[in-house]
Protein 1
Amino acid sequence: MTPPVAPQHMVTRFAPSPTGRLHVGHGWSALMAMDLARSSGGTMRLRIEDIDGTRSRPEHVTGIIKDLRWLGVEWDGDILFQSQRIGIYEAALDRLRAMGLLYPCFCTRADIQASLTAPHGPEGAVYPGTCRALSADVRARRIAAGDAHAWRIDMARAAARAGPLNWRSFDENASSAVSADPGVHGDVVLARKDAPASYHLSCTLDDAAMGVTHVLRGDDLRSVTDIHRLIQALLDLPSPAYRHHPLLMDAQGQRLAKRSGSLSLAQLRVQGVDSSILAADLRAGRFPVGISYGKA
Ligand code: GLU
């Protein structure tokens, strides 16, 4: 008789960026990630994506933690702060550089905007690859001269090295394979001029380091999952299963955003909203007035 297969211990996470306060959509997402873990006796982790030194604010970190606790979101273990993991990101960049898959990019935002022929991918303009063509000499000279640069992945080369890729999508009932096409994003940035790693690199490395088995996040991140799957393949990292939930929209049909002062958890708390009623409403898909589901 074959021994029974031990069920996988589920690990989920919520991973806010402290660039503003959380809105009700974030609260809903965090509750779903926690409930998913709790439904199988699993683990829920919290990660603060504070890698962006120019936009992250310590007061938002404390605010976010307060808002989550108020809403009844509980996590296990220590909070992971990306700002404390710079060395890990640098080591991964070194590995990718040693594989010949990264190149320095000196282009400014304006340079990229000016390249009118740039095709568009799911995340906007695709980098036209200008700096991919620079010689090793020019690269070395410009780096030695202190020219500001990002590091981009040579997508064609990386995709060829990784071969065909799938990621696992899960819902309440089943999981299925989704074929990944990272190439549509072009040569994305893995280390920014102003931050030691891009979201794609740090998020992928951290999900693996935290043992995350199930990623539940907004539908706006569905297409970049292909990039994350590529990084997993290149760096021999395990690949979690993913579910992308619909985004919440305001009365004008716009996505809720931290910047636009969309209904924040902090505002609701100040207004004296009962957080246990709010949490029950969000779980039941009843959102505050003027907020509704976006596309699935
Ligand atoms: N930090 C990202 C955000 O706040 C979410 C990252 C993720 O869930 O993968 O949008």
Note: Residues 52 and 195 are 6 Å apart (CA to CA).
Protein 2
Amino acid sequence: MVEEILKLKKERDAVILAHNYQIPEVQDIADIVGDSLDLSRKAADTEARVIVFCGVRFMAETAKLLSPKKTVLLPRPDAGCFMADMISVEDLRALKKKHPKAKVVAYVNTNADVKAEADICCTSANAVRIVESLDADEVIFVPDRNLASWVQAHSTKRIIAWDGFCAVHERISASEVAASRLSMKDAPILAHPECRAEVLALADAVLSTNGMLDYVSTSPARRFLVATEEGILHRMRKLNPHKEFHAAGGPKACINMKKTTLSDILESLTGMKYDIQVPSDVAGKAGDAIRLMLEASR
Ligand code: 13P
Ligand code: SF4
């Protein structure tokens, strides 16, 4: 199957992008594996005609917004993100009406119509920097309440947060992370900012998934406790074979990130599906919000 995928990939002039949470076989076949920020940069820069996006829908939509002339394929049309679906465009419009002076930051984990209502997007890698770059004292931040509270703790702005969350990261509890630490006192704890504030308070570093990869490769520590979706452990182990990686509080999986298999990728390239389209009435503004983010985080 791997050979067939590689052959078709060449014939179609395609590049395979995969998020750090994808299953190991998918990560291993991808041309580029990364976090949301890195993958959106790579999607914008690629010369390939076709992008096969192994991740969830908002990521493939982001790639399409940045490369509207390219064909962007999402091998599993049902790979959504629960957090992205926690805020609708109507919700955001109502919030903007309530706070007319505030600028709006949409986490990239949103649907394209919500991005179109934002001034700028952010990812977990650049959220504080993006918020600080805005010329406003008040900032509406949607949809993740945990990332919003992390930003609030590191920013001078007043953050108005939406009450959304990632069910996968919310399942990581402070008590289980504290128990992991007791059993491995020498291991630094790395946490994703989608985790609850109590978990972030226990962490030695709060980072995006690529930020975690950089941390573990340069740290002198021999083992690490990682509080995020379990898919990242494969990449950590592959890139750092002499170090040990453990899920802080036990492994947690995002079912949507785990949907894409090698046979889905093969079917995707064979039938050129599922072709991601963003409605033209939102594509321009949503694309601007992402491009502004990329410029502000250079
Ligand atoms: P990163 O951008 O840090 O990879 O996070 C994406 C995500 O969906 C986290 O749940
Ligand atoms: Fe969405 Fe959470 Fe899955 Fe990330 S881990 S894609 S935020 S549901």
Note: The two ends are 38 Å apart (CA to CA).
